[in-house]
Structures are given as structure tokens and as C-alpha cells.
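Researcher: Please translate sequence to C-alpha cells.
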Amino acid sequence: MNRMPELQELVQQISSLDGKGYKAYKTLQGKSFTFGLFELTFEHVQGDPFADPSRFSIKVDLLSAGFSLSHYNTALRKLALEDHLLREVNACIQTCQGKVKGSGRSGEVKVQSPGQKIIRRSAIKINLDTLTLTFFAGLPGDGRRVLAQEGIKLFSETLPPIWNECLLAQSLDLSLLQKALETLEDYSALSQLLDQNRWASFVADGSLLPRASGISDLPLTSQVVPFHAPDELSTVVHLPHRGPIRGMSIAQGITLIVGGGFHGKSTLLKAIQNAVYPHINGDGRECIATQPSAVKIRSEDGRCIQPINISGFMDDLPGVASTKCFSTVSASGSTSQAVNILEAIEADSTLLLLDEDTCATNFMIRDARMQALIPSQQEPITPLVDRIQELFEDFGVSTILVMGGSGDYFDSADQVIAMKAFQPQLVTAKAKQIVAENPGHRQAKAQSPLPKTQCRSRNLSMLDFSRGNKPCVIQTQKLISLILGRTEIDVRYVEQFIETGQLELCGWILKQLKDCQEVDSTLSNKDAVKNILDAVTRDELESITPFNNGLLALPRLQEIMATLNRLR
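Model: Translation complete:
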């Protein structure tokens, strides 16, 4: 078999290992080999064929690979190029599985798998003119013996097409790359318009909101009704590449999304919730943008609560001396929802997103009849309906709320949008007319101002990241929990985590937070986390980890704080 001259050294080294114990592969760890324009490095070699596949990096000079400086000369374009190329690699890898024989995970090839959003990931990064891709491949073995011929096949036939077809400009459809760059730049421009126009969100006409299923973020492809803004809420914005687009702007303040069941209320809110991140071209949500600090709020039975002042929402709780420094190991639905709001504000959120389907009813509303039956002095909860206007006027926190079961929010609402057959209609005037003709008889519970949110400082000195003989263990279980040493943090209801790499990086940020507290314990948790996040964002995602495992992704401040707050 004729092989590239650059392969000969690697072929010889693998050939010399044939039939030896599998750990003989370890002699390759740390070594680099040239493949034309590419440099392949064995970053970590697995201990046996049944273990996680070995980790590799491949580097290439972008200009030599045929890319123009204009493809990555801004932070946005660099991110778009990284994201696009990672998707190309991921798609190519799916076609090369099963070509190499062996035991266990021999020949398995994989890379960090991107979802529908565009976020920074450590699998691929551009530094100056150099692109580095981190990927994984199972080194072939027969039982626990080296299979040299299959190993040679892996590096001569299976892997080279991946980087040759995905990381060289001549092998790519550059029009698709250009579209990816333009899509991200348009989203960024749309996001900037939100602040300029005091909008909470913008949803473009033609957007495809429904997803393929409840467990899929892919777009629904059949019987989809494209979004169309009502004339009263329509706005035309001008984006750098798409030019003028029409859509629905949602102003800051209090917005209700109402309508009958199955008419698209929650689907619209879900799209707004997800639009804190940019989406790839073809997703259907490319031209939806939401205030980047927006937080989805829900009830969360059983979550632990660290000491916090909840007296503005809960006071005179039976058996509790004071709610100004309240904590519990298992909160009720209403208490957890109140705390989730306060913690979102603590984490600098200026937009709360709520869906009555996942809210605690007694926290959302207490109608006149219930007030008549249960006197206010016997009810410790101040419902959100009595604080929602104050949150905006005094705290600058807007709310978008899906509400189909109570009209008591009509009084406070700045705008009311009704969904009918998946299309929005502005019904604010009608809602206000109903308020005038049918004045409510419920009495507002709030008698004193909502206390200002204070940034807390929790000492992490007792948090042990070690397990057994390992000094630091940080693991994830999907988007359900983060494991730090032997401590498990339940994050299943932190809905705006989108990839496990974000959750894993949260763990490393908490580790850094603990280390920082040993040097300076005067900063609040939020300020310390912001400093760490800023440094990670400015440098490399793996700058606070021992090495780049190729699986990290950048989280938001709001999710990091939510994770910290759920630490028992």
C-alpha cells in the first residue's frame, strides 16, 4: 500500500507495537506527526480498548488551508468559523464509523457534538492564524493486544479524510460558510437593537417556532405555521446582511401571552427563552433575539435554598422566626419560585420568563374568593401578581408571562398578546376594557416595598472536589446533575443549560471560585464569578482546567449562579 511520506514514521511506530500489550500505545502519548498541512498530536492515550477513546489534536494554519483573513478577523467571525467547521467535522465523523475492527471501542471516532445554538466550545479554537481541533479515536486492539494493521488503517484511511474534507477551504462549500458568518452577525446586530429600542425580545416574520418533539431542538418540518407579527406590534429592522426584516417587537415591561390551550403560547415563550443564544442558519429561529440575561423562572419542589431574604414574597411562616435569612433543604413549589426570581435578579437578569404550566399556582395568584375565605393574616405568601409591576418600575426587571387561567394580571400588563392557531394578536385594549367593565375585588397583599436584592457570599471551603486518590473530580450526568467530588448538584430544572460542556465548565468555575476565596474572601459570589467568567471568555475556555478535554462550552453568568445556589 502506498502511503504519504509523512505517514511513514507513524506507521513504523505503530507496526513496532503489533501484538504487544495494549498499554504499549502509551509510547505515542505526547508525540506529534505531520500530515501535509496538518500536525497531529497524541494528547492522551487510553489504557485499554474498552476505555474512553484517546484524545488527539490536529492543527493547521488557516491561511495555508485556504481561508481568508476575512473569515476570522473579528470575534464574531472567528466564533462563526469555529462553529461551522465543527459541524462539518461532526457530520463527516458520522460517516466513518465501523471502518476499523477491534475490541471494545476500537476505531470509534467522535468529537464534541454541537446543538442548534452557536456558542463557544473547546473542541475547536482559532488562535491568531492557527486552528486547533480536539477529537477522539479508539486505538484498535484485539482483547488487550495492539492491532497494528487496524491502527495503521485508522490513521491512513479513516482519519485523514475528516480533516482534509472539513478543514481545507477547497473542500468546503464556501457559500455556506459565508452564510454562517452572516447569520451570526445579523443576530448580533439584532441583539444590539434590543437595548437601543428598549425591547425585551424580537421575533421575525417567517420564524419557525415549533420543534420536532419535546425532546428535540431540531425544527419541525411538516405542517409548520410560520410566525407573522400583528400589524400593531410589527416593526421593521435593518440587519447588515438580510437587510430589512419585519417582525414582532416585545417592549420591556410586563407582557402577557394568553390564548386557548394548544394555540402556541408555550411554543412562543420557548422560542423567546432559547433566543438568548444565536441559532444556526436553517434552524428557523435565526432572527429571534432576547435580552441575553433573560432567565426562565419555574417552581422547583424540593430544591435546597441557601440563606436569602424572601420576606418580600414570604413572611410570617409558621415555625420560622424570620424570612429575612431563610434557608431550607427542601423548598415548596411557591417558595422555590420566589427564590428563583430573587436569585435571577441577584445574577443581573433584567427579564423573567414564566409559563403558568410550570409555576406554583399559590405563588402566582390569590383571587378575591380565596382572600375572603382565608384572611390575609393567615396567608404568608405575597403572590407575584402583587409584585410584578414593582419589579419593573423599581428594579428594572421585565416579565413575559404565559397565562391562560387568570385575568388578574390584566391590570398590570403593559401589553397582552393572544395566540390563536399559532399566530399572535394584540388584545391589550380589549383586556383593559374588561378590567374597566369588571373591576377585580381582590386586595393587593403587598403592604411594604420589595427589599433590594443583596449579593451573597457563600464560603466554599468545605466543598471537597476530591474522590478516592483523585484530587479533583468534575463530572456531568447529561443536563441533570453536576458532580463535584462526591457532591451532586441537581440542575435539571435550570432550563437554559443547552449543552453538557456548559455544565462541566460551571464545575471548573466553582473550583476556581473556591481557590479565589482562599486569597480574597471579600468579593460577593456574583462578583467573583463574573471575574472568573470574564477571564475565561477573554482567554481560552480551558484556561482554568488542567488541560483541554475538547468538551467544554461557555455558560452564562445566570446558569453558573443557579448551579452554585443549588449546592447543598
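Researcher: Any highlights?
Model: The chain has three domains: 5-172, 295-437, 474-565.
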